[in-house]
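Consider this one:
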Amino acid sequence: MSDRILVLYGSYRSDRAGIRLAEYVTRRLAARGANAELIDAQRVGLPMLDRMYKEYPPGTAPAAMETLAGQIRAADGFVFVTGEYNWGVQPGLKNLTDHFLEEWFWRPAGIVSYSAGRIGGARSNLLWHGTLSEMGMVVISSTVTVGPVTQTLDSDGEPIGEAGKFLDRSFARFADDLDWWVEAARAQRQRKAPPY
């Protein structure tokens, strides 16, 4: 049975470069044998948060929200691919994430960040650690920062130059750590049913 990993991405910009990284992550996880699926907040199209999924009576949540809740519950782990907006988190990804709570519990999450500059989204990366932990995920210590993203990945999301080679090396370590935590969390969930 292959690990089911959701790769979540949240930019709504018309000229978004981070989608290259989200697609790269999804392809690389699949190449390692994971059942990896990209969840693009722009394509999902949830409204600005009014009610969380859990606040709807059963069977009355909007269809997109109901579908995504099922995908999250079925996942073994998550990778959040996030840009940095004014030293903060990406609003589209935060909005998508905040629609749910218990659905995230007891699974590991990894963070891959990017920016147009050399910082590689490091500040956003750091902020996501606390947010995802508060939402019941185990955030792995390995992380990937990519910047400048357009000098690391071409328009098809393939690595280019020395920065691309570095990304491949750092992503391999990140994915190894995510695999370890996915296996550990699955064993614990099988041993002791989560209290929800």
About this structure: The chain has a mean pLDDT of 95. Helices lie at 18-31, 41-44, 63-74, 91-98, 122-134, 161-191. The radius of gyration is 16 Å. Residues 161-191 form the longest helix (31 residues).
